[in-house]
Design brief:
The complex is a heterodimer of chains A (114) and B (116). Chain A is mostly beta strands and 114 residues long. Chain A is built from no helices and eleven strands. The model of chain A has no long low-confidence stretch (mean pLDDT 94). In chain B, 0% of the residues lie in helices and 52% in strands. The mean pLDDT of chain B is 93. The radius of gyration of chain B is 14 Å and the shape is globular. The chains are: A mainly beta (114), B mainly beta (116).
């Protein structure tokens, strides 16, 4: 089954404690990205990757890091989380070009920073 | 930069009635795609309908249809014969057609309530 898997799904953490949200896809997609969803703001892109070792900033990259060492994985790293990073996070993947109109989303990760 | 605006934070409709959700966007591109996504309380992102800008014909998917006005940069979603299961947050999204990626730009969302 084609899927994007995120972990953890729910996390409460404290300010400053490094955490990683993992994302894995089984469709051999080149393109992967992270979004955060906040009330009244919709989903905003944090970082994206067009292939292994190729990453770039989205609209709201501050406070986040990513890496793409393998094609299937695209972890989101919060080196020193702060309360304003409390949000719902989505990982997404797709092919590139016109074939990329079928975008697969993970189920979301609820992150609370206290 | 592309922007997507949904001016209706909340909408409500009676079961079996028709409702239209509004979306406008701004872009200088001529080749792009527009989407409506549904997000139920589970927070899953579900694709409702997709429109290719180079196609003049409005997309339809069962009870869901769009009114795509390219010159006006408007992309509204019509839900006919509304059902209780249609209650959700709806997001309009834009994607520029390019070879390098599949970035989506989302609107703020419209929370739809369906009244029995």
């Amino acid at each position: 089954e084609a899927q994007v898997t995120q972990n953890p799904r729910y996390l409460i953490t404290v300010t400053g404690k490094k955490l990683t949200v993992t994302c894995s896809q089984n469709m051999n997609h080149e393109y992967m990205s992270w979004y955060r969803q906040d009330p009244g703001l919709g989903l905003r892109q944090i970082y994206y990757s067009m292939n292994v070792e190729v990453t770039d900033k989205g609209d709201v990259p501050e406070g986040y890091k990513v890496s793409r060492k393998e094609k299937r994985n695209f972890p989101l790293i919060l080196e020193s989380p702060s309360p304003n990073q409390t949000s719902l996070y989505f990982c997404a993947s797709s092919l590139r070009g016109r074939a990329g109109n079928t975008i697969y989303f993970g189920e979301g990760s609820w992150l609370t920073v206290v | 930069a592309q922007t997507v605006t949904q001016s209706q934070p909340e909408m409500s409709v009676q079961e079996a009635e028709t409702v239209t959700l509004s979306c406008t966007y701004d872009t200088s591109e001529s080749d792009y795609y527009l989407f409506w996504y549904k997000q139920p309380p589970s927070r899953q992102m579900i694709l409702v309908i997709r429109q290719e800008a180079y196609k003049q014909q409005n997309a339809t998917e069962n009870r869901f249809s769009v009114n795509f006005q390219k010159a006006a940069k408007s992309f509204s979603l019509k839900i006919s014969d509304s059902q209780l299961g249609d209650a959700a947050m709806y997001f309009c999204a834009y994607r520029r057609t390019e070879t390098s990626g599949s970035r989506l730009t989302f609107g703020e969302g419209t929370q739809l309530t369906v009244n029995p």
